[in-house]
Design a protein that fits this description.
Structural class: alpha+beta
Helix content: 40-55%
Oligomer: single chain
Strand content: 5-15%
Number of helices: 6
Strand order of the largest sheet: 1-3-2
Distance between the termini: 37 Å
Shape: globular
Length: 125
């Protein structure tokens, strides 16, 4: 262990592991990014579905439920017939947008490095 580091930094519930767990599925970061960049923080389910090529309706619903449960987004049902549901970034969700945007920006700036990566056997690229 390096001098000055604490054993707590390597625990299973340490901050870096918790961040990685939050973004273990690609759709969490994609929903945060899409809500923030394309929809000014709020969008209906169908709009999100059309804005996220490759996601199934089932996966979007599951991701939105998990994000709502964790406090990243809030769900608002409008009193129309049929009811319209809108998802909005919460203040907590906005805090998580920042690192997502930094990472996505790095990806755009370093697409050549991403292109050099060997494709994983399970990749859908």
């Amino acid at each position: 262990m390096q001098p000055g580091t604490s054993e707590d930094q390597w625990r299973e519930d340490c901050a870096p592991r918790r961040v990685l767990e939050l973004f273990a599925t690609k759709w969490t970061s994609m929903v945060l990014h899409t809500l923030h960049v394309r929809h000014e923080g709020a969008a209906r389910t169908g709009v999100l579905l059309r804005s996220l090529p490759g996601i199934s309706k089932k996966m979007l619903t599951q991701t939105l439920r998990e994000m709502e449960y964790s406090g990243l987004i809030s769900r608002h049902v409008q009193g129309t017939i049929p009811p319209a549901v809108e998802y909005r970034l919460t203040p907590l969700g906005m805090r998580f947008v920042e690192p997502v945007e930094l990472l996505y920006g790095w990806g755009r700036d370093n697409a050549d490095a991403l292109d050099e990566l060997k494709q994983r056997p399970t990749s859908r690229r």
